[in-house]
Amino acid sequence: xxxxxxxxxLAFAYGICRFLLMLIPPKVPSIDVDTSDVLDDGNQQQxxxxxYVPPRGTSQQSGKIVQCYEPATMKYLGYVPALTHDExxxxxxxxxxxxxxxxxxxxxxxxxxxxxxxxxxxKHQALICEISSRxxxxxxxxxxLGEIMTTCEKINWLLSEGEQWLxxxxxxxxxxxxxxxxxxxxxxxxxIGAIVSWNYPFHNIFNPMLAAxxxxxxxxxxISEHASWSGCFYFRIIQSALAAIGAPEDLVEVITxxxxxxxxxxxxxxxxxxxxxxxxxxxxxxxxxxxxxxVTLELGGKDAFIVCEDVDLDHVAQIAVRAVLQSSGQNxxxxxxxxxxxxxxxxxxxxxxxIVKSVTAGPPLVGKxxxxxxxxxxxxxxxxxxxxxxxxxxxxxVARGSLGNIGEDAVDQYFPPTVIVNVNHSMRLxxxxxxxxxxPIMKFSSxxxxxxxxxxxxxxxxxxxxxxxxxxxxxxxxxxxxxxxxVNDFASTYMCQSLPFGGVKHxxxxxxxxxxxxxxxxxxxxxxxxxxxxxxxxxxxKPIQYPLAENGFEFQESLVEALYGLGIRDRLRxxxxxxxxxxxxxxxxxxxxxxxx
Length: 597
Prior knowledge:
With 597 residues, the protein is an alpha/beta fold. It is built from 18 helices and 22 strands.
């Protein structure tokens, strides 16, 4: 006891010191970002104060400039350039030059970059959310959930585990290579190209950027033409943080434009990450095939939300409505098909109907509204088309939310949350991605039936399963062909940033997030070296040296059995043969034998 007592005291003192050190915040520089042209203080210039009416059809997908406006109020925000093919090539070249320097940076410097960003984000949450709200129509709460929390969690995971997963990883060398050391190294790919969607303008920029920069890459991000105004401001935050750590100023680029801009990016980079529709994803794959670069595609979703008969109905009903209204009715989280057990179907419909009827949509920064506007001006027409198709085939609308004081000219960009029943899989609403605040609810009678229904989709991004029996919910979720699954929760998988994110089928392939997403930004290199160099080196055995000995193949047979034989007796016998042949005089190579033609 006298021996152990001092060790216990030292261990306790060490633990206390570690705890006290954790209480001391790290010294992180602050950054200043110009906000003079993004704050709506009522003193905007006259030319930027009018109501903007976006053109319909293909005319809005081309041109030399990208017009920006607030979806919730149609207030004009300004414009950004639509970069040409040559301009994109020039930006990529600058990033490539900067990346060669950044690849030599330390993980300490990379972590400081992340901490500076985290400090700014936490201090300026309201600003970041307000800008996202103005550019996409989402509420401040939805912006906080989808933009701030997810990004902070990503940064926190990289700070805690990022270096660990990018260090060389040692692997077993196998029986035949016991004298070797085997490892996997993770090197930067070079320049990553990301083409991201409009639904989360802040997070969709930061998510690929954080992984790319921390793994030693440069990155060029083509932001959506539907959320370019906010993206250009968020880029300033990144530039300020890079300057604060002395990183190359051209390491990150954010570019704006239409299809031509994206096509130029795909043809110029070393890897493409795309978030968007399946149709565009296929075109990106086709273009990437020309240069044979890797592609990660996160495409559409039609997630199943499954409710068994043994759940807490009040609890699940609230989650279900949140899943539908996520991100101001833009349904970015993907719950689009609701399957409810026949025994509780009526009760569930009644509860979600009550909640939805209490929801009001309106300009999120003007009043207290539960959901905001649709980001894209024409999207309400698509949603109405899906609803009308379902109604024509026998479906019934049982509840709709209300619209607030939105003005006479702002109807098109608002769509009230809608509960619709008596749906089936013959309806477009149950097959096509809606990306809107519509809750179609269908009955099921057994676990086998609901698994079949959930898998009856061309999409496979995610699913959510609710049951009072967690094992039952887990079993159902395991049978659904999707990339992510939440058991007794919704969308929680994305908040666990240690997990990969992505889908199957028309939802895409490849993963971002987690270890898999971080390493996907790397050249994964297998390396083998001598374990006891220079004392033990690889030497080709005599029987298989050139010219080959007559017993060369016999030697190989015995060697294979000695290494991999199933029985110990057979392996020992083979080993004796190997040793015998190694010690025998070389009977002469086959090349020395006279040929009789």
